[in-house]
Design brief:
The protein is an alpha/beta fold. The chain is built from 6 helices and 17 strands. Strands 1, 2, 3, 4, 5, 6 and 17 form a 7-stranded mixed sheet that branches. Strands 8-15-9-10-11 form a 5-stranded parallel sheet, covered by helices on one side.
Length: 302
C-alpha cells in the first residue's frame, strides 16, 4: 500500500509528488497520457516567477526530473477503470491492476474547449492560443481576435487590449453572456471591436495565423478578417471522469475544494485546474500541488 496516489502528472501533480517525496511519503503517480499536461506544448513561458524564459517542454522535463527521477517515484501509465475513495483505504484500478493508498490527490486538469474549425489544430502555438495571460505579450502592438462571449472572453479581450493595437471580440450570438459590469468595461475600450452573430469557419495562414474566415449567422455572408493571433475562450472541460460519483462537484463539473485543497472526502485532495478556483495558471497549479501534498501529510500524520 502507498501513502499517497497522485492522479495526473501535470504541473500540479508533479509538484505534489515533489513535496510528498520530500516529506518521506511512499508515492505513486498515475497518468493516462503524456506527463506534463497542457503546458508541455507551450513554446515559451515568460510569466513563471524567477524563470525569465523557458519552453513548456523544458519546464516539464526539469520538474519531472526533480519530482520523479530524483526520488525514483513509480509512474503507472494507463486509464483508470475503477476507483474507491471512501473509507480509510483508497483504491485505483488501472487496466486490471488495483493500487491502494491511504490518501489521494486528484490532479487531472482541465481541457480547453475547441472551436473545431479548420486550421485550429494546425496553428496551435503559431497564433492560436487558449490563454491570453500566457501568450498575450507575444502580440504586443498587433491585431488579434478573441472568440467567445462569457466573462472569460471579455476579461481576455481587456487584458489583450493593454498590449495589442486592436482586439476583435467575436461572438456567435447577438449579445454577450458575460455580466453587465464586464460588458460595459470591455466595450469602453476604443481598441476592442465587437462582432456579433458571427462564427469562425477557418483559421488561415501559412507558417503563422494571418486571417480568419468568418460567417455571419443571419445572412450567411462570409468575410476575411486579417489578424495576427486568435484567443479561444469558450470554456473548459474538467477531466474528472466518474470521480463526481464520490467527490462533490460544482455545476460546471469542477471538484469542490477551497485553498486547502480538501474535498468532501477524508484523505482525498484536489489540485490544479480541475478544482473550483478563480485563477487557472501554471503558478497556481504548482501552488495547489504544494498545498495538497502538505494537507495529505497532515492527514496521514493524524
Amino acid at each position: 500500500m502507498y501513502d499517497l496516489i497522485i492522479l495526473g502528472a501535470g504541473t500540479a501533480g508533479l509538484t505534489a509528488a515533489l513535496y510528498a517525496n520530500r516529506a518521506g511519503l511512499k508515492v505513486l503517480i498515475v497518468e493516462k497520457g503524456v506527463y506534463g499536461g497542457q503546458i508541455v506544448n507551450t513554446p515559451l513561458i515568460e510569466n513563471y516567477p524567477a524563470l525569465k524564459e523557458v519552453s513548456g517542454f523544458d519546464f516539464v522535463q526539469n520538474l519531472y526530473e526533480q519530482a520523479v527521477t530524483k526520488f525514483e517515484t513509480p509512474v503507472v501509465m494507463g486509464e483508470i477503470t475503477d476507483f474507491s475513495f471512501t473509507g480509510i483505504k483508497k483504491s485505483v484500478t488501472v487496466d486490471q491492476t488495483v493500487y491502494t493508498a491511504r490518501s489521494i490527490i486528484l490532479a487531472t486538469g482541465a481541457e480547453h474547449r475547441k472551436l473545431g474549425c479548420a486550421g485550429e489544430e494546425k496553428f496551435k502555438g503559431k497564433g492560436v492560443s487558449y490563454c491570453a495571460t500566457c501568450d498575450g505579450a507575444f502580440f504586443r502592438g498587433r491585431t488579434v481576435a478573441v472568440i467567445g462571449g462569457g466573462n472569460t472572453a471579455l476579461q481576455d479581450a481587456k487584458y489583450l487590449a493593454n498590449h495589442c493595437q486592436k482586439v476583435y471580440l467575436i461572438h456567435r450570438r447577438d449579445k454577450f453572456r458575460a455580466t453587465k459590469v464586464e460588458i460595459d468595461s470591455a466595450l469602453k475600450r476604443e481598441n476592442i471591436i465587437p462582432i456579433y452573430d458571427t462564427v469562425v469557419e477557418e483559421i488561415m495562414g501559412e507558417n503563422m495565423v494571418t486571417s480568419l474566415k468568418l460567417r455571419q449567422i443571419k445572412d450567411q455572408t462570409e468575410t476575411i478578417l486579417p489578424v495576427n493571433g486568435v484567443f479561444i475562450a469558450i470554456g473548459l472541460n474538467p477531466n474528472n471522469g466518474d470521480f463526481s460519483k464520490e467527490v462533490e462537484t460544482d455545476e460546471g463539473g469542477y471538484l469542490i475544494a477551497g485553498e486547502d485543497c480538501k474535498t468532501n472526502l477524508e484523505g482525498v485532495f484536489v489540485a490544479g485546474d480541475t478544482r473550483t478556483k478563480r485563477v487557472r495558471q501554471l503558478v497556481t497549479a504548482a501552488a495547489d500541488g504544494a498545498v495538497s501534498a502538505e494537507m495529505a501529510v497532515e492527514y496521514l500524520n493524524c
